[in-house]
Amino acid sequence: MSETTVPRPSSLPARLLRLYGGLAMYGLGIGLQVESGLGNGPWDVFHQGVGLRAGLSIGTVIIIVGALVMLLWIPLKQRPGLGTISNVVFVGLFADAAMYLLPAAGHLALQACYVALGVSSIALATVLYIGAGMGAGPRDGIMTGLMRLGLSVRLSRLLIEVTVLFAGWLMGGTVGVGTLVFALAIGPLTQLLTRWFPLT
């Protein structure tokens, strides 16, 4: 283990800190990318589109969709953990708080900064909350459930994200260069961060 690696926490308080810190950063990352106006990640294109149609905040939609997605875990034989339930409740709350508090990104340079910080925050959030070992997020559970049915990680994720991206775009969710940056950068960034915040 290198000197810069942060070992996976074993005590419950440390794991809870990692879980809820990760969920807070996830909400912040969503807020940054949405407020950039340059395009959201696939799921947040969907959340935004539903919110526009239903007259709800993005955070509220995140919570509702997360709860509904968990119903799909039943036929996929997935079991939720504390991290799963917390993800459903807190990511949406943190996302709405971030969008309320963040200053408007009125200049292209600030918009680009929001995208970069948003994607980086979501990548770090992912390794933090998954590394806490307290259950996958509801949307991640669909992917792992499809993998159990014989689909590859790449195909499972592609099917899910293309579906929600297209549906969200049809409902008015923002798709743009930020969406492309998210798609290209989130995987490599998350993989890089596992060097310092291992998942196992």
UniProtKB/TrEMBL annotation:
<protein>
    <submittedName>
        <fullName>Membrane protein</fullName>
    </submittedName>
</protein>
<dbReference type="InterPro" id="IPR038750">
    <property type="entry name" value="YczE/YyaS-like"/>
</dbReference>
<feature type="transmembrane region" description="Helical">
    <location>
        <begin position="16"/>
        <end position="34"/>
    </location>
</feature>
<keyword id="KW-0472">Membrane</keyword>
<feature type="transmembrane region" description="Helical">
    <location>
        <begin position="54"/>
        <end position="74"/>
    </location>
</feature>
<feature type="transmembrane region" description="Helical">
    <location>
        <begin position="114"/>
        <end position="137"/>
    </location>
</feature>
<dbReference type="Pfam" id="PF19700">
    <property type="entry name" value="DUF6198"/>
</dbReference>
<keyword id="KW-1133">Transmembrane helix</keyword>
<feature type="transmembrane region" description="Helical">
    <location>
        <begin position="81"/>
        <end position="102"/>
    </location>
</feature>
<keyword id="KW-0812">Transmembrane</keyword>
<feature type="transmembrane region" description="Helical">
    <location>
        <begin position="158"/>
        <end position="186"/>
    </location>
</feature>
